[in-house]
Write a structure and sequence with these properties.
With 417 residues, this protein is mainly beta. It folds into two domains: 178 residues, tricorn interacting facor f3 domain (Immunoglobulin-like, Sandwich); 173 residues, Immunoglobulin-like, CATH 2.60.40. It is 7% helix and 46% strand. The chain has an eight-stranded mixed beta sheet, with no helix packed on it.
């Protein structure tokens, strides 16, 4: 009987491993084209593993490409991780139940088990040679590849100019002179991405001093002076910005909504996150934790002079200015921390009930925003295009993807079912 019990336990463990399905979020890929003769490109892939309790992460190595894995890092500590290239059978034996037997996978040992509700952030550095994706054609070089990841960038080789891109992209210049294109895919399918470039004799980089103190994802007080060109403006890559916010609307009579906001800090020495509450809004019940470890963080709500007394600089500080401050250990060289900040906002000016209709009218500055309607309400109007589905508990969810560097004014109207 004792041995039967042990046998059954082992079977349960094996079945549990076979039923494991890997989940992930915040994927971003940077492709760097190497010399055209090599037909190779470097891939830097950032991804966050989200399966609670997982100690391994599997990255599928695409068939049809010769690949070399250079390194894998844990983004929280900046330290390299142990990895191994395995076939489908070994991947399945280590918990990836849907692994294809003829597939090839990069199996990574995580620095720590994924905390419940948290993440393990990784950076994978590998090089592919793929003659079908990177080739010469009529005096140009061509990158032609289906990209399933939602946030991507492609860096041309040194000394090449961009001549075509079949998908809307941002264009910017690296400090070494290379041209980079970047995009966010807001559709349900992968993008058949095709870019062409040709040699350029006068490709140089002329840096401009950035005199703009307001990052693209923040609202600028009063807006910019649109009568003049932004001579010192440096384009920032929208798809790489990794802030993500979800709004859970409460019943409109309350004028309130719960939200959580994910944010990564990597500036050395930073020890706090400061959220200035918008004028006309009131924040309550703030909380925060590190997604990397599950650690709960200290949170303070400060007003007026109390903000300055903590050494926090705020533009246009008044007695009515309210700040939610999250404290954490200072960031060390090579490290980063990803925070999840939660709070309830009350804003009777921008979220209200008029003639039995729910009205939401709010500006979004971040590239990824999600709004979930209250229970019992159906959507009848949305000013900004968004992907719409239902949550598991039957609420309408609208996902807004903004690949532009400016804000979007989201107007939503809903009625009771």
């Amino acid at each position: 009987m004792k041995y039967l019990f042990i046998f059954l336990c082992l079977c349960c463990i094996r079945m549990s491993a076979q039923e494991f399905r890997q989940t992930q979020t915040d994927s971003y890929t940077r492709y760097e084209l190497l010399s055209p003769q090599s037909q190779s490109f470097r891939i830097i892939y950032d991804v966050s593993a989200t399966t609670a309790g997982a100690t391994k992460y599997f990255n599928t190595l695409r068939a049809g490409s010769d690949h070399i894995v250079d390194a894998v890092w844990d983004l929280m500590t900046g330290k390299e991780l142990v990895w191994k290239i395995v076939d489908g059978r070994e991947a399945k034996a280590n918990g990836l139940s849907y692994a294809a037997e003829n597939g090839e996978y990069l199996m990574i040992d995580l620095a720590r088990a994924v905390p419940n509700g948290g993440q393990a952030r990784l950076r994978i550095d590998k090089t592919y040679k793929d003659t079908a994706s990177y080739y010469r054609e009529n005096g140009t070089i061509v990158f032609d590849r289906s990209l399933g990841i939602k946030r991507n960038s492609l860096v041309l080789p040194q000394g090449y100019e961009l001549v075509s891109a079949n998908y809307p992209v941002q264009v910017m210049q690296e400090t070494d002179g290379r041209i980079k294109v970047s995009f966010m895919n807001d559709g349900p399918q992968g993008v058949p991405f095709k870019v062409a470039a040709r040699p350029a004799a006068n490709m140089k980089y002329t840096p401009q001093p950035d005199t703009n103190p307001w990052p693209d994802y923040q609202a600028r007080p009063g807006g910019r002076d649109k009568s003049k060109a932004r001579v010192s403006y440096n384009v920032s890559e929208r798809s790489f910005q990794n802030r993500d916010i979800v709004y859970f609307l409460q019943q409109p009579e309350t004028h309130s909504f719960f939200l959580y906001h994910d944010y990564t800090e990597e500036r050395v020495g930073m020890d706090k996150y400061v959220n200035i509450v918008r004028a006309g809004s009131k924040a309550s019940g703030p909380s925060a934790f590190l997604l990397d470890t599950g650690e709960k963080l200290k949170v303070e709500t400060l007003r007026g002079q109390a903000i300055a007394d903590k050494g926090i600089e705020v533009n246009g500080l008044t007695d009515d200015t309210e700040a939610v401050v999250i404290w954490y250990d200072p960031i060390k060289e090579g490290e980063s921390k990803r925070l999840r900040i939660s709070e309830t906002y009350t804003d009777p000016n921008r979220y209200l009930l008029i003639d039995d209709q729910l009205i939401w009218d709010r500006s979004f500055g971040r590239n990824r925003n999600t709004v979930i309607l209250p229970e019992g309400w159906m959507l009848i109007s949305s000013s900004i295009p968004g992907a719409i589905d239902m949550t598991e508990d039957g609420k309408v969810r609208i996902r807004f993807i903004n690949g532009r560097p400016d804000n979007i004014d989201v107007f939503i109207k809903a009625i009771r079912r």
